[in-house]
Amino acid sequence: MKPAEKVRIEPALEAISLEKTFTVRGGLPGSAAKKVHAVSDVSFQLQPGTTLGIVGESGCGKSTLARLLLQLIEPDAGDVLLDGSQILQTRAGLKAYRRQVQMVFQDSSASLNPRLTIEQSIIFGPLIHGVDKESARTDAHELLTQVGLEPTLYAGRYPHELSGGQRQRVNIARALALRPKIVIFDEAVSALDKSVEAQVLNLLNELKAKLDLSFIFISHDLNVVRYIADNLIVMYLGEVVESGSVDRIYENPRHPYTKALLASMPSTDPEERTHEAPIVGDPPSPIDLPQGCRFAPRCPSAEAVCTANAPAHDPVGAEVVRCHMADPVSGHSLAGQSS
Amino acid sequence: MSTPLLKVADLTVRFRTEKGTIAAVNGINLELQRGQVLGVIGESGSGKSVTLRALLGILPPRKTQISGAITLDGRNVLSLTKRELSKYRGGEVSMIFQEPATALDPVFTIGQQITETVMRHGATTKAKARARALEMLDLVKIPDARSRIDNYPHELSGGMRQRAMIALALSTGPKLLLADEPTTALDATVQIQVILLLRELQRELGMATIFVTHDVGVAAEISDRIAVMYAGRIVETGTASDVLKTPRHPYTNGLLTSTVIGARRGETIDCIAGMPPDLAAMPQGCAFAPRCPLATTECTAAVPMLKKSGADQFVACIRQEADGRHAA
Ligand SMILES: Nc1ncnc2c1ncn2[C@@H]1O[C@H](COP(=O)(O)OP(=O)(O)OP(=O)(O)O)[C@@H](O)[C@H]1O
Ligand SMILES: Nc1ncnc2c1ncn2[C@@H]1O[C@H](COP(=O)(O)OP(=O)(O)OP(=O)(O)O)[C@@H](O)[C@H]1O
Ligand SMILES: [Mg+2]
Ligand SMILES: [Mg+2]
To answer: Which candidate in A254, B129, B162, B212 could, as Cys together with B123 as Cys, close a disulfide (CB 3.0–4.6 Å)?
Structure first.
């Protein structure tokens, strides 16, 4: 028998050791400029047809990562690959890339131009990319139907004539108008009412299957992420501290930060309330990073090794746990014991 | 049972607008005991915030028609004079919001704001008021309160700003705290800290609380009792356990089913069909009937009253038998 040839399915999108710092001026005149470490050494693979969730505390770098992926800002180091290829950093290259990777933001009202009708908003992108007006309009009406807004009723309306949930549907239709392969959602359902949120999530599942899409889904609602995402990356202070399948991480989180984060989910049973906050205080400043492991100052299991060295990790592995306890040879007293 | 701290009888709030009269609150009755926490859940636009604003006495008088009675500690809030109202607001009753910016002024330090509020509500000296401010910042567990007291709101993290707003609201020792989604904008780790803090303070200070939220989990964590609002009415109320575990109104049931919590990945979530009614043209009878899977023609005849159903649960639905089953 011939050994099976191993075919590598290219990830739809891949990030390789992305790095981004922002330079900010000190508070006092004359004080030196400082560096904000927003995204440090972030790698992941988005498999075609799947959804990758991104979670982590406010300020941990989720939106910065999204902007890097969209090529809205330039990384200090690292690469983004689309279907296994580098992105041409020319005008035409970026234009072609942005057609394939679209984004939906949280604030549905701020991202629609109040002076354009719904239809005008949706065909705006396609017109710029050279689609003729008639077919752009036909597509727009089809998309409106797909997101559950009857075109004869809604195409001519202005954003202020829609509810929040309806506006977010328009944003989704607009993101899809260029027939992208990948859509990044940055807190896109967070401002919606829970019952509208459920409708929008149903819609996303439906469209993803129908249009062969891959999603990146940023949210601080851990219930939403569990429902929508297949794989997950957990970020802390700019780094990926844990990644893997959603099922594995929710059932068996291995990094102490992931454990604390998941234990912070409110109970839905009034008789089984939470009695103690799993983690207190604020994360350290991304300007003056702690020595060693970035989570050590708040970690219940921190030992000398944690503040001495940064934990080793496998940069391209699908399952990452950036913690000395997950590394059998780190010297941490609990190393290798964690499940 | 002892006399309730708060009694609301047939509270109705209408707004006059260009598009007609909006019936935002349509006859709410509720009682709240001292030290009790009432969670209020319901879809966007169901009148949760307007109810809280009526209780705090901050609805714009010229555009608003309010009727019914709000009695706090034996006094009718709706007949307070302007002077009495300004003592009542932020004194006997305080409110906290989703966005701390609603309550905190960006041009004053948090210490100045708490000190000023405490002075306005009767502290004798500035030194005493500042001591009280420090005590409050300690109470809400702002680390290193002694140096944080002179910070401006923008110099604090989101979680700390939320704590500072809570400190400001509690500094006058209110009997009733009105909380309008104070944890919605926070991330999970900070949210649970703020919930636990509020639960602890509320218990220690014996303060009654009405806590509005969209999140069933948050409601479960904080509420003794829960009221479910739909189109400006309370359609179901009872202990948190009863309402969340054995919902008896079809709307409550729909609300608790149309959630990602417990849903399997990729599986369609069961949503309540349709949209809430136009409050400028309320439907006849039960406002939920147009969306209700159990509705019959009878439902549109009259607005159903809250009726006892089970030991300590009240439901406004005529399709509901006393034993909690739906009429066949
Ligand atoms: N243009 C910028 N200049 C300076 N600092 C920035 C800039 N953009 C982001 N930062 C900082 O980078 C860090 C990461 O910010 P980012 O917005 O990516 O976080 P986030 O995880 O999206 O947070 P949230 O959950 O609150 O949206 C923060 O400390 C932020 O203050
Ligand atoms: N000042 C006002 N003038 C006119 N209509 C108003 C006014 N304030 C509120 N409303 C309307 O009253 C209804 C109830 O609003 P309210 O803010 O109480 O809803 P809510 O239950 O708090 O919703 P959400 O969950 O979105 O905060 C809404 O239809 C709203 O548009
Ligand atoms: Mg963000
Ligand atoms: Mg509200």
So the answer is: B129
